[in-house]
């Protein structure tokens, strides 16, 4: 019996380094994915932080939402990278536990009282329930407690002299990704209003429902518009994913109002080629931007392209905007959530042709002479992301080679000496 216990203990000791590395990769991967999914859409993180601050009546902190978003996102991404490669073995786990010490009670409260509809922990890339988020954080915390005791027993991939660079390179990568998403649009768009989506017309769903009925021991599924007679008994309902390409075009309708009247179809149908100016917060647009907007409107009018402004402001704010900006273009009201989902930035521009989104960008990125010749940017954005990711991987591999090559040479020479002695 004693020998069996001794053997089990020996097996556990031998397997412990593999368990440490596996947990590093799992927890590091979660942090890395969480940081990346936030960083690729920084405006989305800012909006989510705003939601949290408003839910907890911390309106005084709203001006700092952008700074908090950048720091939190960078911290998650860099910590995830450090866990994956084992750099700063003690400090990284301590920082991770500090993050969880804040997140665990927060997500517990959110799971219980639901002050925000979803936690936003993976941005728009993967939306999970508040309850699932809490239990995810419980599992992460348990794993980190184990790593707190054992992580230092397994060496890092990089030597101490260059470990500070393993912080710098991932951070710079993420800052570039965040900058593109903030000043233009996210490099990857996981929202309903992607380029190529139609914002008017009959809505097309990616999923259809079929109802399962039973008769004389035989089960059969029926669509909603071809239900059987009363001799059949309802059993269950199932979702069937449809091939979007076969349904024609992807439609996610938008809605905007002139007072209490929905004028979406009238406005969009009367103007085939349009520019939508989206302003989520009228008070946050400076005077210099109003001149640029008026100049843009004049340019588009001369080119035969209509422009309208969509905002979530109140009637009083819209009237004040018209007076201050001397706007000659129509201004309509839109739901705040829909407005922020369509395009990021304040203000933002969305080019629509025959109800189809051609491209979208933040206003600061616009050069008037290039507007009408611009095409969709989604493919270019994907290529840019691939190039940035490849550059980060190559730089990290080059750093590893430079750092560990001398050690590898010493090890090889030692093996040769040992062989000669034998």
Shape: globular
- Percentage of residues in DSSP E strands: 5-15%
Largest sheet, if any? Answer: 7 strands, mixed
Instruction: Please compute the radius of gyration using only Cα atoms.
Output: 28 Å
* Structural class by sheet pairing and helices: alpha+beta
Report the mean per-residue pLDDT as an integer.
85
Number of strands: 10
**How do the helices and strands follow one another from N- to C-terminus?**
HHHHHHEEEEEHEHEHEHEEHH
Q: Give the strand order, joined by hyphens, for the main sheet.
A: 5-4-8-7-6-9-10
Walkthrough of the structure:
- By secondary structure, this protein is α+β, with helices and mostly antiparallel strands.
- It has 3 domains: about 1-185, no CATH class; about 205-240, no CATH class; about 255-375, Glutaredoxin (3-Layer(aba) Sandwich), CATH 3.40.30.
- About 55% of the residues lie in helices and about 15% in strands.
- It has 12 helices and 10 strands.
- It has helices at about 1-40, 40-55, 65-85, 90-115, 130-150, 165-185, 265-270, 285-300, 315-325, 335-340, 370, 380-420, and strands at about 205-215, 220-225, 235-240, 255-260, 260, 275-280, 305-310, 330-335, 350-355, 355-360.
- The strands form 2 sheets. A 7-stranded mixed β-sheet has the order 5-4-8-7-6-9-10, with helices on both faces. Strands 2-1-3 form a 3-stranded antiparallel β-sheet, with no helix packed on it.
- Helix 8 (about 285-300) links the parallel strand 6 (about 275-280) and strand 7.
- Helix 4 (about 90-115) runs antiparallel to helix 5 (about 130-150).
- The chain is globular, with a radius of gyration of 28 Å.
- The model has no long low-confidence stretch (mean pLDDT about 85).
């Amino acid at each position: 019996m004693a020998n069996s216990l001794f053997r089990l203990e020996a097996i556990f000791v031998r397997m412990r380094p593999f368990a440490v590395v596996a947990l590093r990769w799992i927890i590091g991967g979660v942090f890395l994915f969480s940081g990346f999914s936030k960083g690729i859409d920084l405006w989305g993180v800012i909006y989510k932080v705003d939601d949290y601050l408003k839910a907890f009546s911390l309106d005084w902190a709203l001006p700092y939402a952008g700074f908090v978003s950048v720091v939190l996102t960078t911290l998650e991404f860099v910590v995830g990278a450090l866990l994956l490669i084992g750099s700063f073995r003690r400090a990284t786990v301590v920082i991770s536990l500090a993050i969880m010490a804040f997140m665990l009670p927060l997500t517990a409260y959110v799971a219980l009282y639901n002050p925000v509809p979803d936690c936003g922990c993976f941005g728009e890339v993967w939306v999970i329930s508040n309850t699932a988020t809490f239990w995810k954080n419980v599992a992460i915390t348990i794993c980190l407690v184990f790593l707190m005791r054992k992580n230092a027993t397994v060496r890092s991939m990089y030597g101490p002299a260059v470990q500070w660079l393993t912080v710098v390179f991932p951070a710079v990568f993420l800052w570039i990704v965040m900058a593109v998403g903030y000043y233009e649009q996210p490099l990857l768009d996981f929202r309903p209003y992607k380029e190529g989506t139609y914002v008017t017309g009959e809505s097309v769903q990616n999923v259809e429902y079929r109802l399962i009925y039973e008769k004389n021991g035989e089960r059969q599924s029926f669509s909603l518009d071809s239900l059987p007679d009363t001799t059949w008994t309802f059993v269950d309902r199932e979702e069937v994913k449809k091939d979007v390409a076969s349904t024609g075009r992807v439609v996610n309708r938008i809605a905007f109002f002139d007072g209490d009247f929905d004028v979406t179809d009238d406005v969009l149908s009367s103007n085939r080629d349009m520019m939508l100016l989206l302003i989520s917060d009228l008070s946050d647009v400076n005077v210099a931007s109003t001149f640029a907007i008026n100049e843009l409107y004049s340019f588009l009018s001369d080119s035969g392209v209509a422009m309208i402004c969509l905002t979530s402001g109140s009637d009083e704010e819209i009237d004040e905007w018209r007076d201050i900006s001397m706007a000659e273009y129509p201004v309509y009201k839109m739901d705040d959530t829909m407005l922020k989902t369509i395009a990021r930035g304040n203000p933002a521009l969305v080019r629509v042709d025959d109800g189809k989104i051609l491209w979208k960008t933040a206003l600061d990125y616009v050069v008037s002479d290039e507007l009408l010749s611009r095409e969709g940017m989604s493919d270019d954005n994907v290529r840019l992301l691939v190039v940035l990711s490849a550059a980060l991987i190559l730089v990290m591999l080059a750093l590893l080679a430079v750092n560990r090559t001398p050690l590898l040479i010493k090890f090889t020479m030692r093996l040769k000496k040992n062989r000669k002695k034998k």
